[in-house]
Amino acid sequence: MRTDEFEDLLRGALDHQAAQAPSGARVLAALAPRTRRRRWWMPVGGVVTAGLVGIAMVSASESYEQAAPGTSLQVSPPAELGNVYWEPTWLPSGMVEQERSYAVDDTWVGSIWASGPGTAAPWVHVISVVPGPGQPTGPDPSHEQVLVNGRPGEWTVSSDPRHEVHTLTWWAGSRRFDLLGSSLPDPKPVLLRVAESLRPLAVEPTAVPFTFAAVPGARVDWSGISGDRPDKAVMITNLVFADVGVARIEVRPDQPVLEGARVPVRGGTGWFRMAPLGLDELTGQLVADLGGRWLVVSFLPYAAKDPAEQLNLLTTVANSVTVGPTPAAPWLGRRP
């Protein structure tokens, strides 16, 4: 999913995910508006690493069997450990896989399926979560109650009128499943059918080879690979700056639009601009040439930051990252 698209996806599901996402897996709540402000730089030590983090989604005590429609997901001892995505075996016509993402602390893993670029096209987001302490273990009685393969769940709709997102949430074994969708005809029966079709898919670990030198105040939140086809894979990592904002780091195969002021970065020249990118506040974006690939760093502030502050942070992040080869992603653009 491109930089100019992902903010709407995240903000659209904010109400639901902010209440339920585990602390290390704030896939959607990362863009929540914050009123508290803190100093930009807070001391941290060591090296923050997002790269080569596998997705060990099956613990030593459990695995999951495919459930036929109308039955319950069962938990059984695994034959061996592996890396698991939950893949739909049914989707509306034309939907293909466009992204796989994971929390670097292994608390969730997700995939996005869509029928075209942009948030106006129908899309479905499948997220499997290992709830942390204090996270809900069942549906909220105040929400509409549903059953998914015989398991209790709930149905919610985002309150943002600009981008309505429907969310089906249910619990099975030690996991919570969030199935989000937008621009779908008859969203509830469609998402219920998608949910009932989910099966565990053992895959090679998805790993984004980014390594960061110490970035003051930052922690790596989640990483992923997105794109429309295998030869156009984009690597993504989000760095969270507590109470300040989120820096999104992308490495793209194609040259982006080179607009804005020319600025020094990574021993050469980059391009910095402020753009709305669909948000209420202007967002800073810094582009640097990696010699055949392109580094794009965007900053999504929780509160307004002037361009000089944003450029300072983006330059620090861009200079700190070491980027490895883009992993093969043969699944991009495929049907289930």
Features:
single chain, 336 residues, mainly beta, Phosphorylase Kinase, domain 1, Jelly Rolls, 2 domains, 14-stranded antiparallel sheet, three-stranded antiparallel sheet, 4 helices, 37% strand, disordered N terminus
Task: Walk me through the structure.
The chain has about 325 residues and is mainly beta. The protein has 4 helices and 21 strands. The strands form 4 sheets. It has a 14-stranded antiparallel sheet, covered by helices on one side. The chain has a 3-stranded antiparallel sheet with strand order 1-13-21. A two-stranded antiparallel ribbon has the order 2-3. The longest helix has 14 residues, at about 305-320. The chain is globular, with a radius of gyration of 20 Å. About 45% of the residues are buried. The model is unreliable at about 1-80 (pLDDT under 50).
- Which structural class is indicated by helix and strand composition? mainly beta
DSSP strand tally:
21
- Tell me the distance between the termini: 18 Å
In total, the number of domains comes to 2
- CATH topology tier name of the largest domain: Phosphorylase Kinase, domain 1
Helix content: 10-25%
Strand order of the largest sheet: 8-9-10-11-7-6-5-14-15-16-20-19-18-17
Order of helices and strands: HHEEEEEEEEEEEHEEEEEEEEEHE
Name given to the CATH homologous superfamily of the largest domain: MucB/RseB, C-terminal domain
CATH architecture of the largest domain: 2-Layer Sandwich
Average pLDDT over all residues: 77
Q: What is the radius of gyration computed over CA atoms, rounded to a whole number of angstroms?
A: 20 Å
- Main β-sheet description: 14 strands, antiparallel
CATH class of the largest domain: Alpha Beta
What percent of residues are in strands?
Answer: 35-45%
